Amino acid sequence: QEAIFVCAATDLVGGLVLLFQARRLVSWLLVGTMVPAMFLGQVAGTELLVRLDPRIVAWCLAAAVGAFALGLLLRPARPGRGELAELPRDGRASILGQGLVSALAGGLMAGLVGAGGPPVVVFMKHHFQKDFFRAQLIGVFVIGACALCAILWVRGAADMDSLRKVPVLLVPMILGNQLGAWMAPRVPPTAFARIVGVLLLGASLAMVF
């Protein structure tokens, strides 16, 4: 529980930097629609977290990260359709419904294993072009990290000692964020996705062993 809190707090602070940079592209209508579903999933996920054996939680995390890594390696590039206003009118409600389901699943995974990105990333990549979906992901994850920190704090899973661990991770995380932002337009999307996939697959295998 403390590990998930520390990671969420680090995501929150590091994400605020990215959110400031991408603020003009964020559709608060889309983000605001998805965040309540993510919050409900986080509440359910943290409830499971306190009830399950830590080994089961580790295996769940390994499976989630591994599946996402394989998806990036096998199908790393999927064309988006533009921005929210460019979605087909007759299918917009269905697409937003998919967004709610992905946010709920992402919140459940975030509360349970601290890695809620895969369902939301897959949804965003499938329906939106790169710059737009990146900005929405930042918005959703920053608010989601804030909510997850609050849930865990209220549950007593973290304290001031937990907060003091955040600065240790903050500098490398911000450097990594900026490196990723610098690489994104310079490295072909397929190659970039496969680089990330290999790193995540390694992390998944490490959790198993």
Could you characterize the architecture of this molecule?
- The chain is globular, with a radius of gyration of 17 Å.
- It has 209 residues and is mainly alpha-helical.
- The chain is built from 8 helices and no strands.
Q: Which structural class do you get from the secondary structure elements? A: mainly alpha
Termini, distance in Å? 21 Å
Residue ranges: pLDDT <50 for 5 or more in a row? none
For the biggest sheet, the summary is: none
- Binned, the helix content reads over 70%
**Total number of helical segments?**
8
Gross morphology is globular
Beta content: under 5%
Specify Rg, calculated over alpha carbons: 17 Å
The pLDDT mean sits at 83
Order of helices and strands: HHHHHHHH
Secondary structure: number of strands: 0
What's this model, at a glance?
By secondary structure, the protein is mostly helical. It contains 8 helices and no strands.
Secondary-structure topology with pairs:
Blueprint: H1 2-22, H2 28-51, H3 54-74, H4 92-113, H5 117-127, H6 130-154, H7 160-183, H8 189-208
Helix pairs in contact: 1-6, 1-7, 2-4, 2-6, 3-8, 4-5, 5-6
Q: What are its keywords?
A:
single chain, mainly alpha, 8 helices, 80% helix
